[in-house]
Write a structure and sequence with these properties.
mainly beta, Elongation Factor Tu (Ef-tu), domain 3, two-stranded antiparallel sheet, 0% helix, globular
Length: 87
C-alpha cells in the first residue's frame, strides 16, 4: 500500500444517485486517481471515474474546490478523503 495524502472531507452524500460532495481542503484530485474514504463506519478504496465541479465534468479539481464524484459505497458527512500514492 502506498502513501496516503489527505485531500479533503465529505460534506454531503446523495444516496439516490450514489454521489459524494467533497470539499478539497488539503489537496487536488483528478480523474483516474485512487482514493480512500475513511470515517467512523466507512473505509474503502476506489478509482475516481468522473469528477464534477458545479455540475460540469472536469478532469481535475484544485485544492479549495467543491467536487462531486460517484462512490461505490455509502459515505457520510465528515468522512476523510485520501489520495493513494504509488509508494
Amino acid at each position: 500500500m502506498g502513501a496516503e495524502e489527505k485531500i479533503g472531507v465529505v460534506t454531503d452524500y446523495y444516496a439516490r444517485i450514489g454521489v459524494a460532495a467533497i470539499s478539497l481542503t488539503d489537496g487536488d484530485i483528478r480523474a483516474g486517481d485512487r482514493i480512500r474514504v475513511r470515517g467512523q463506519t466507512t473505509d474503502f478504496t476506489q478509482s475516481v471515474e468522473s469528477l464534477e465541479v458545479e455540475h460540469r465534468a472536469v478532469e481535475r479539481a484544485q485544492r479549495g474546490s467543491e467536487v462531486a464524484l460517484k462512490t461505490r459505497e455509502r459515505v457520510r458527512r465528515h468522512d476523510q478523503v485520501f489520495r493513494l500514492g504509488d509508494g
